[in-house]
Amino acid sequence: MSSALPQTGSLRDFVFKVASRCNLACDYCYIYTGPDQTWRQRPRRMSPATIDAAAMRIGQHARAHRLDSVQVALHGGEPLLAGPEVVERVIVAVVDAVPPGTRAELILQTNGVLLDRAFLDLFARYQVRIGISLDGNRQASDRHRSHADGRTSYPEVVRALHLLNSEPYRPLFAGVLCTIDLENDPVETYRALLEFEPPTADFLLPHANWSRPPPRRPDLGSTPYADWLIRIFDAWYDDPAAGTSIRFFDDMIQLMLGGVSATEVLGAGVPGFAVIETDGTIEAGDSLKSAYHGAAVTGLSVQAHSFDEALEHPMIAGPRLGRDALGPTCRSCPVVNVCGGGQFAHRYQAGAGFGNPSVYCADLRRLIEHVAGRVHRDLSSAVSRQPC
Amino acid sequence: MTEPAPDEADALVDLSGITLERIARLCGPSASGLDPDDITDRPVLRRAVRRVQREGERGSGLLAFFCSHLR
From A89's CA, which of A18, A68, A249, A346 has a CA 20 to 30 Å away? Predict the structure, then answer.
């Protein structure tokens, strides 16, 4: 059986902060409305010299570790604000920097507002796949995802999705990212996403921690996020034609079956990644910015440091340690193989650090129990038919 | 914390310590020999089994548990 387990001692995923500002003013944004305000000191976009230095470091790392692939995500802020010249420079620099034998997989995460044919033609030339943030229908989108003057962004995002879904661009469509809001009906939200036939849909728990707890509603019980997601899971799992992958659920089932998670959200021993800010500083995972000001700062930069040096930084190494990074409560939990303690940023508590269970612990356990129960029942009947 | 229902609690027990390597030993020459289409009609579960077979596995495995259990 072939193995695609992460190569130890290396990073495979790199997030390029192509632009450090955004053209939307989403009220839940962990970058601009959270405790970390380091973005204020960053250049608005990456300079050519920074782009070249970052690409060189990625190539150096891929060569040193003989990586068969690297994934580079163009991110922001809103990356399209950097303009087509800067975006193309990043793409070309990365493609040129990786050694023969290393595949550069490029993806861009955008709010869609600026996505047009000129950008899509550029992405088609280099096979850059596109993810778009979408929280559901117009009502769901308008709760949070507005322009600074309060105007809705929904029609612009829908236009971008229709364009991306048209030929010849459809193969570039990677999927949609949806941040959970308990005010939205889960199944309506799921159906709203499916209208655009995304290859992948992902549901994100709002970034929160023990010192900044997630939004709750007293009328929704003690595990509202699990209950919300379970309604979507059942609709998805029971769909005989489910063509859309839901990464959160796929990874959960994958881990139950004995596989590995592809993301930082689930599973102990997550794939490693580093963030490169517009000024070339190397940071740990973006979600850490929801913990406290400077939480993702490493003091390193692509101008002066290699990614091997970044790997030694505790905030980049910590999430990769798997069970060793977990507290005793998590280590003794029967579902730790699946939740992995939850996302690293969600374990934070001021004064206590990251050694706690996730602030979503009860929700994760309830959801895992539900998914495990359903998979259990299916395999139970299936295996009874197998000639073991 | 909510206590799991009995069938869900059983499923939790199954999440420990049994791997697809073991299913290979129990069920045939290779875990990759399992046909997901024989296991389930559910597209999402078929995809998951194929991904484990393609990408390799580590840790626990419900599939393996059931084969070993039936042995």
Answer: A68
Nearest Cα residue to A76 out of A66, A67, A61, A86: A86
For domain A13-325, the question of CATH label 3.40.640.10 is answered with: no
| Structural domain containing residue B41 | 16-70
Q: Is the distance from CB of A373 to CB of B8 less than 8 angstroms?
A: yes
Q: How far apart are the first and last CA of chain B?
A: 35
How many independent structural domains does chain B possess?
1
B10 domain-assigned? no
- The Cα A248–Cα A229 span in angstroms is 10
Question: Does A258 sit within 8 Å of B52, measured CB to CB?
Answer: yes
**Domain extent listing, chain A:** 13-325
User: Is B55 among the domain residues?
Assistant: yes
Q: How many CA atoms lie within 13 A of B27 on its CB side?
A: 25
Q: Is B9 domain-assigned?
A: no
Report residue A350 as tokens.
């001021």
Residue A372 in contact with partner chain B when CB distance is under 8 A? yes
Question: A8 and chain B: CB distance < 8 Å anywhere?
Answer: no
Q: Kindly state whether residue B3 falls inside one of the protein's structural domains.
A: no
Four-CA torsion A20, A22, A26, A30, nearest 10 degrees: -10
d(CA A254, nearest CA chain B) in Å: 6
Question: Could you tell me which chain A residue has the CA closest to the CA of B38?
Answer: A382
ipTM value of the model? Answer: 0.72
pLDDT in tens, chain A (388 residues): 333 334 458 888 899 999 999 999 999 888 888 888 888 899 999 999 999 999 999 999 999 999 999 999 999 899 999 999 999 999 999 999 999 999 999 999 999 999 999 999 999 999 999 999 999 999 999 999 999 999 999 999 999 999 999 999 999 999 999 999 999 999 999 999 999 999 999 999 999 999 999 998 888 889 999 999 999 999 999 998 888 999 889 888 888 877 766 666 676 665 578 999 999 999 988 888 999 998 889 999 999 999 999 988 888 876 666 677 788 888 888 888 788 888 888 999 999 888 899 999 999 999 998 988 888 777 766 555 555 4
Closest residue in A to B25 (Cα) is A388
pTM for this one? Answer: 0.85
- Of B15, B18, B58, nearest to A5 by CB-CB distance is B58
Tokens describing residue A292: 């406290």
